[in-house]
Amino acid sequence: MKKTGIFKTTKKDGSVYYRVSITKSGKHISLGSFTKQREASKCYDEANDILKNTTVDEHSYDKYKYIPFDKFIILLNYRDNGIYIHNPIYLKKNYFNYYLDENTVLKFDRDDLFYYSNHKICKRGNHLFCNEYGNQINIAERYSIPAYAVLNRDYRFKNGDIYDYTYSNIEILNKFHGVKRIVKGNKVFFESRIHIKGYTKIGEYEDEITASIAYNKAADLLMKKIDKTYRLNFPELNAKEYARIYTEIKLPDSIAIYK
């Protein structure tokens, strides 16, 4: 007897496989494909159990064998929240979880739901990215974390959880190129450095805006002298104030007379 939701089909090479789907409240949800009819049937039964058994939660996946993990989360979210999302997202009251796998759970604010509902997150080593128009976009860039940034030097997660991307949990420590925030005792200052053959110190400044402009001034000078390109900083200042600070900054001889 043919089970509802299981469809026999044939590949171009003539081999047979079985597509599985389930319908809930008028929503047709694809569950995957199997080479054996028995496995397809088991997957359908597991999906049906997830949708009907309210004791099943996000930590219950180990009781299932055939349904893919991402489909497990999708069904749970649809059952509990009434919203179908084709990525493995489970909605909470003020945030949502995005499950990369059983052991890797990313946390985001609800404001990001539209984006991650439509963009699949991929993981390669510690690199998390989404594909956009053929390009790999590091998700950290959505949270003003520069591509060159180093964890716990340039930014940090306040609660120590590197997978908690809620906005209140991310603190940017150094947001400008060539600028490093330094704490000595009760004193906080900002050091500017630029790479020539090695890193060369430009100076120490009381605020990061001045430090970022010092870096720009050094970069401007060096790009006129050597065949090298530097990425500049863009602090939020009007042109007049930027020019005033730029003019007042004196570069060290190691850069000013560099040949």
Task: List its salient traits.
three-stranded antiparallel beta sheet; 6 helices; 259 residues; 3 domains; alpha+beta
Strand content: 25-35%
**Silhouette:** elongated
Return Rg in Å.
27 Å
User: Helix proportion of residues, in percent?
Assistant: 25-40%
Write the H/E string, N to C: EEEHHEEEHEEEEEEEEHHH
Mean pLDDT: 92
How many separate domains? 3
The helix/strand class is alpha+beta
Main sheet, how many strands, which sense, barrel?
Answer: 3 strands, antiparallel
Termini separation: 84 Å
Low-pLDDT residue intervals, each spanning 5 or more residues: none
- Strand numbers in spatial order across the main sheet: 1-2-3
Enumerate how many helices there are, as a single number: 6
Structure summary, number of beta strands:
14
Task: Characterise the protein shown here.
The protein is 26% helix and 31% strand. Strand 8 and strand 9 form a beta hairpin. The protein is elongated. The chain has a three-stranded antiparallel beta sheet with strand order 1-2-3, with helices on one face. It is built from six helices and 14 strands. The model has no long low-confidence stretch (mean pLDDT 92). The chain has helices spanning 37-52, 69-81, 113-118, 208-225, 239-248, 253-256, and strands at residues 6-10, 16-24, 27-34, 89-91, 95-101, 104-109, 121-124, 127-132, 135-138, 155-157, 170-172, 179-184, 187-195, 199-205. The chain folds into three domains: 1-70, no CATH class; 85-173, no CATH class; 179-256, no CATH class. The protein has 259 residues and is of the alpha+beta class.
